[in-house]
Amino acid sequence: MQTATTEVPVRYAETDQMGVVYHANYLVYMELGRTALIESLGCDYVAMEDAGVVSPVLEVQIKYRKPLRYGEAARIKTWIEKYDGLRVVYGYEILNPRGELCATATSVNVCVDKKTFMPVAMKRSFPDWHRVYEQAKKG
Amino acid sequence: MQTATTEVPVRYAETDQMGVVYHANYLVYMELGRTALIESLGCDYVAMEDAGVVSPVLEVQIKYRKPLRYGEAARIKTWIEKYDGLRVVYGYEILNPRGELCATATSVNVCVDKKTFMPVAMKRSFPDWHRVYEQAKKG
Amino acid sequence: MQTATTEVPVRYAETDQMGVVYHANYLVYMELGRTALIESLGCDYVAMEDAGVVSPVLEVQIKYRKPLRYGEAARIKTWIEKYDGLRVVYGYEILNPRGELCATATSVNVCVDKKTFMPVAMKRSFPDWHRVYEQAKKG
Amino acid sequence: MQTATTEVPVRYAETDQMGVVYHANYLVYMELGRTALIESLGCDYVAMEDAGVVSPVLEVQIKYRKPLRYGEAARIKTWIEKYDGLRVVYGYEILNPRGELCATATSVNVCVDKKTFMPVAMKRSFPDWHRVYEQAKKG
Question: For labelling alongside A7, which of A58, A101, C99, C108 has CA 20 to 30 A away?
Answer without folding.
Answer: A58
